Amino acid sequence: MLLVKYVGPDYGLHDGTLALVAIGAFLGHLFPVFFKFKGGKGVATALGVLLGISGWLGLLVLLTWLAVALTTRYSSLSALVAAVLAPVYYVLLGGSLWNYDQSVLLAVIAMSALLLWRHAENIGRLLGARKAKSAAKKTKPLLSPSRSARKSAAVKPRTVLHPRKARHVRAFLCPSVCCIACAACLRTSSEAINQ
Q: pTM for the complete prediction?
């Protein structure tokens, strides 16, 4: 990405080529040839691509992901919100913080749509959890505990990621730096596929 962005104009490669490289890098991580086309969900790669398109765009999407993750404690919800807002950020701030190009916008929209598609199972789980929470709120117990009993009850803290999915954090950090297939990224991807 960075090679096309900074060296490409000398060779006649402009924003259209940057958009193609962005989609190619993203699809290559979603459907890696070496792992029988079984890859991850593309969140970290999308962030790396957005950082390659514009550091400001990548930073805005990263801050969005972080804000939602800290408030809701759901990594998948954070990724979905960031994916939906990435094209919105590109359109609203294009021209002021980065060069606006329609082909790059189409690439960002395509990446967001593919992220939503890859997270379809997570969307179902999130909606199921929300329905379960709303059903629990509607049913009232016959005997409610006293106020002092409610205060003394221990509140179990929620965690951001399931303990088995702690590798997701490592997979998120590696490709987002430069979006290349480094040894750590490949090792993390192969661990994810084998489990």
A: 0.64
